[in-house]
Backbone:
């Protein structure tokens, strides 16, 4: 650890020990202090991980480094010189590059055009040709193969990430910020990314690696800084750290890693899907002949990288998207292309992917959101009028049961935190004792506490005899919860394996579409 | 149908297509940067009025066209201010601009109503090319310089859009302003410039009507051309080169709606360009994915840097 921050920079030494350093940086948004006197630095040739839960302030911190936010107080020092970073342009000029969690790419354009955008020194005429050549040279040096003439929308998430890294390197990035870079990668692609990072380390770059996954942070980083609620909890050398210690720093209490999960006793099939074909928003085939079944009393997990048809599959099963071909049976009923209300009435619960856009009506109150789906039936509706007393009684009951933190049942749902919004949705969906639960990314973006509660709720549904279909990009989550795991790739189920004997490598290959396994 | 009929039809279609071409080229640039401007009709009529007023007063048609360009660009800047800086709804602001332009030009132009222009922009004969049989009289006689400048401009704008650094910037801003912003591109500036260019070209298109085509001033003389421009922009799938034949095709429809009056009821004929415009929009809606894929990704959406 370096000495504490202070005015001790003797006129910027020519070889300062860090590339970039944030000192006592504070940034507030209305209602929250996202960064509270944060001090953080990166040295040349190191991968410095920034670890913390969602909402801990990691992204805010790097957005300050990249000039997207201005800090309220504190200073930024680059190679011993105090600077103000007012815009991404200034950040780039100072040698800071960033790969955002949601890529900043122009999808219809080619790789070269994307790289040429805003790049100083590109020729006026035919910029893509020149930049394409430089791109190939860089790609060779760092082991990041790309085709400069391909259009970005045709590339896989891993390839798009390579383009983002190359874009930053092309701009002379000394410090590269990677925001949750592995969330879109298969385990194999993650391995390749780590190789690229070690090459960057050898070349003397500094890498800021943002993550909330303990295992990969321990694997890739030299030093780890843990943040919690906007503050730095501490910085440790990766060699001296271990998982329980980091988890404790991150969450602020002991964390249990193993969920208690009873043995699986599958009953009859609650959902059977036979060769369905579904199109995406662009009218292109998204689900291509998926066949599987989910039994009562089991959790059936669907793993895969986002955009391989999972969203369209769930929407088709909940009646939101047309099934072009194939059959869906739920509890013995043929339900292909039946309406969402019909499906809800026969006991299908849906925990949607985008919880704020599709899961709640943000402007309605908590209690109103809790009775959506059943608002048209007794006891909530009598003779066409809402029976407010029963609504209130029901709401108070489930708020208690599911531990939803809200100031009152009248509070607009949009004012709740992400975890409480998700609990609200689960309370609504699960309180009717569904026979089939379709859950898409149920813990995405939630903190450890809320995640544990949500997973526990799903396991209780399974214990109670419901069939649970769990779609998640988080492979750890699927492996932990699911009794059987299917992998989706380009709209097809590339294989089904039993949860207990699942192998990360094998699933990773299936996620990349390389191997078909019968199970 | 003799050859003379065809020659004069093509020749007049070209002349009538000119304002459509200029307007469409402008709207293509505005929309490529992500801003829909439904104020084309308003900017054209303001351009027509300003062009006539200046040309009539000064006696120099070129100055009239310059004034039309300036007024069109100024009107567009107002739209840019509302939609880019204040992030107002682009459709509402554009409609307001159209209504405002029509009203203001009508009010200011009362004294000039129906007056012919003293010195109109002259027609030119392209030396040499005009001698070609059939094609010569069709394409190279009796046009104003704006016909050829319009085609040249379309080619230049195509090259800029698809073969230069600026083009990458403009298209990126229209597709994904957040990406452009994260690479240090000034999204606001790019959008202002593109919208202003759109207004400038629409203004010239309007000025052409009052300074060259008619040449006189009548209230509401743009007669819905601004709306055809909006449809043409989609019809041309935001490509300046396609705008050329799209504009001249609609020019022909306009012209035929006068020409065929001897045989078909004039009311029906006047509907023709608009009916086609509706057809184009309907077809592009049905064609779904394939057409829409070419529409700039952030068209119509104000850009707000992601604050929480």
Residues:
């Amino acid at each position: 650890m370096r000495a504490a921050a202070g005015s001790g920079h003797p006129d910027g030494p020519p070889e300062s020990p860090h590339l970039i350093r944030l000192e006592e940086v504070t940034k507030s948004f209305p209602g929250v202090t996202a960064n509270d006197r944060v001090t953080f630095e990166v040295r040349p040739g190191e991968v410095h991980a920034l670890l913390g839960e969602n909402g801990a302030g990691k992204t805010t911190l790097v957005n300050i480094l990249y000039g997207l936010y201005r800090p309220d107080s504190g200073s930024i020092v680059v190679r011993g010189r105090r600077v103000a970073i007012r815009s991404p342009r200034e950040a780039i000029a100072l040698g800071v590059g960033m790969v955002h969690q949601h890529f900043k790419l122009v999808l219809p354009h080619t790789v070269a055009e994307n790289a040429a955008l805003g790049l100083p020194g590109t020729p006026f005429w035919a910029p893509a040709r020149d930049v394409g050549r430089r791109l190939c040279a860089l790609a060779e040096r760092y082991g990041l193969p790309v085709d400069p003439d391909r259009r970005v929308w045709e590339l896989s998430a891993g390839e798009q990430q390579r383009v983002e890294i190359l874009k930053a390197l092309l701009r002379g990035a000394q410090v590269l910020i990677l925001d949750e870079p592995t969330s879109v990668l298969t385990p194999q692609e993650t391995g390749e990314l780590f190789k690229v990072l070690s090459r960057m380390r050898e070349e003397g770059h500094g890498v800021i690696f943002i993550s909330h996954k303990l295992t990969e942070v321990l694997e890739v980083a030299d030093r780890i800084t843990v943040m919690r609620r906007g503050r730095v909890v501490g910085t440790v050398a990766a060699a001296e750290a271990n998982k329980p210690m980091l988890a404790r720093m991150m969450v602020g209490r002991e964390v249990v890693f193993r969920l208690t999960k009873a043995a699986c006793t599958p009953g009859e099939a609650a959902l059977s899907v036979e060769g369905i074909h579904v199109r995406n928003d662009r009218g292109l085939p998204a689900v291509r002949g998926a066949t599987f079944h989910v039994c009562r009393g089991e959790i059936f997990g669907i793993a895969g990288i986002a955009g391989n048809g999972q969203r369209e599959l769930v929407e088709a099963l909940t009646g939101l998207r047309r099934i072009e071909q194939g059959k869906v049976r739920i509890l013995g009923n043929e339900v292909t292309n039946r309406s969402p209300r019909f499906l809800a009435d026969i006991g299908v619960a849906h925990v949607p992917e985008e919880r704020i856009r599709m899961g709640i009506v943000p402007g309605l109150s908590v209690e109103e959101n809790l009775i959506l789906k059943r608002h048209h039936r007794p006891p909530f509706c009598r003779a066409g009028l809402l029976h407010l007393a029963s609504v209130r009684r029901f709401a108070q009951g489930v708020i208690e049961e599911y531990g939803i933190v809200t100031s009152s049942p009248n509070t607009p749902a949009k004012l709740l935190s992400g975890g409480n919004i998700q609990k609200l949705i689960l309370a609504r969906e699960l309180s009717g004792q569904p026979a089939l639960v379709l859950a898409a990314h149920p813990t995405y973006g939630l903190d450890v506490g809320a995640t544990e509660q949500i997973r526990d709720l799903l396991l209780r549904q399974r214990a109670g005899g419901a069939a649970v279909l769990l779609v998640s990009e988080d492979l750890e989550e699927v492996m932990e919860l699911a009794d059987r795991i299917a992998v989706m790739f380009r709209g097809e189920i590339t294989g089904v394996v039993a949860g207990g004997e699942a192998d990360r490598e094998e699933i990773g290959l299936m996620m990349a579409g390389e191997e078909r396994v019968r199970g | 149908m003799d050859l003379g009929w065809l020659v004069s039809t093509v020749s007049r279609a070209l002349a009538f297509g000119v304002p459509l071409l200029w307007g469409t080229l402008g709207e293509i640039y505005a929309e490529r940067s992500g801003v829909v401007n439904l104020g084309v009709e308003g900017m054209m009529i303001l351009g027509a009025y300003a062009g006539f007023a200046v040309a009539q007063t000064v006696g120099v048609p070129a100055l009239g066209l310059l004034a039309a360009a300036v007024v069109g660009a100024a009107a567009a800047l107002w739209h840019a201010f509302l939609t880019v800086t204040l992030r107002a709804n682009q459709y509402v602001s554009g409609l307001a601009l159209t209504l405002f332009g029509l009203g203001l030009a009508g009010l200011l132009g009362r004294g000039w109503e129906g007056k012919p222009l003293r010195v109109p922009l002259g027609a030119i004969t392209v030396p040499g090319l005009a001698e070609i049989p059939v094609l010569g009289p069709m394409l190279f006689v009796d046009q104003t310089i704006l016909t050829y400048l319009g085609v040249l401009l379309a080619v230049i704008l195509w090259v800029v859009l698809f073969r230069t650094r600026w083009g990458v910037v403009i298209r990126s801003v229209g597709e994904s302003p957040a990406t452009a912003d994260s690479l240090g591109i000034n999204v606001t500036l790019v959008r202002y410039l593109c919208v202003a260019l759109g207004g400038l070209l629409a203004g010239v298109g309007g000025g052409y009507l009052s300074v060259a085509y008619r040449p006189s001033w009548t209230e509401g003389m743009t007669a819905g051309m601004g709306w055809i421009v909006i449809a043409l922009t989609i019809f041309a799938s935001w490509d300046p080169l396609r705008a050329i034949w799209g504009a001249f095709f609609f020019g022909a429809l306009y012209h035929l709606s006068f020409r065929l009056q001897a045989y078909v009821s004039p009311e029906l004929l006047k509907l023709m360009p608009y009916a086609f415009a509706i057809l184009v929009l309907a077809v592009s809606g049905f064609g779904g994915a394939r057409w829409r894929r070419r529409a700039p990704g952030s068209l119509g959406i104000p850009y707000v840097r992601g604050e929480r």
